[in-house]
């Protein structure tokens, strides 16, 4: 029995080109649905890589897209999967107010994964939550196709 530690292989980080691809793909999906949105892409450290607000999108969509991306990144989960956890009877009902960082538990935020590792997050705001989620998922599918693995990144 060996106690040797296996080295972890490096995973390519989310690049600004990747971020622009995510923004473009989410916006294209929104435009096809007749929606105007904001899209935020964060790297693995929570730093802004790309942001775009359609000039016809409601102003708050910029804030909601960023908070959705941040929440998804910090909890490594789609924000759509976290909604029930913060309801008054949910296990994390105090989480939205417990931290000094802006979390938002509304569908539209998805972690971006490459080779099984989280490398960032994308958030979409401005349409109905389920639509925002779909636009973010379309962006991940486009990145996965671009990466060449054909599988969605989330």
Short description:
With 154 residues, the chain is of the alpha+beta class.
Q: What is the second-level CATH architecture?
A: 2-Layer Sandwich
The biggest sheet, with number of strands, parallel, antiparallel or mixed sense and barrel status, is: 4 strands, antiparallel
The number of domains is: 1
Shape: globular
Question: What percent of the residues sit in helical stretches (DSSP H or I)?
Answer: 25-40%
Question: Radius of gyration over alpha carbons?
Answer: 16 Å
Average of per-residue pLDDT values: 90
* Beginning-to-end CA distance, first to last residue: 35 Å
Helical segment count: 4
Strand order of the largest sheet: 2-1-4-3
Query: What are the low-pLDDT stretches, counting only 5+ consecutive residues below 50?
Result: 150-154
Order of helices and strands: HEEHHEEH
By CATH reckoning, the class would read Alpha Beta
Beta-strand residue fraction: 15-25%
CATH superfamily: Haem-degrading domain
Q: Can you tell me the CATH topology?
A: Beta-Lactamase
Number of strands: 4
Give the helix/strand class.
Answer: alpha+beta
How would you describe this protein?
The chain is α+β, with helices and mostly antiparallel strands. The protein has four helices and four strands; from the N terminus they run αββααββα. A hairpin with a 4-residue loop joins strand 1 (38-43) and strand 2. Helix 1 (16-32) packs across helix 4.
């Amino acid at each position: 029995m060996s106690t040797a530690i296996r080295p972890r292989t490096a995973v390519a980080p989310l690049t600004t080109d990747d971020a622009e691809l995510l923004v473009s793909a989410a916006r294209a999906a929104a435009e096809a649905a007749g929606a105007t949105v904001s899209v935020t892409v964060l790297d693995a450290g929570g730093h802004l890589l790309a942001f775009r607000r359609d000039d016809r999108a409601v102003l708050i969509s910029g804030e909601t897209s960023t908070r959705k991306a941040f929440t998804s990144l910090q909890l490594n989960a789609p924000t759509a999967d976290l909604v029930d956890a913060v309801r008054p009877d949910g296990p994390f009902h105090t989480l939205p107010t417990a931290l000094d960082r802006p979390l938002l538990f509304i569908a539209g935020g998805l972690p971006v994964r490459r080779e099984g590792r989280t490398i960032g997050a994308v958030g979409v705001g401005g349409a109905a939550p389920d639509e925002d989620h779909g636009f973010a998922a379309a962006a991940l599918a486009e990145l996965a196709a671009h990466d060449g693995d054909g599988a969605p990144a989330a």
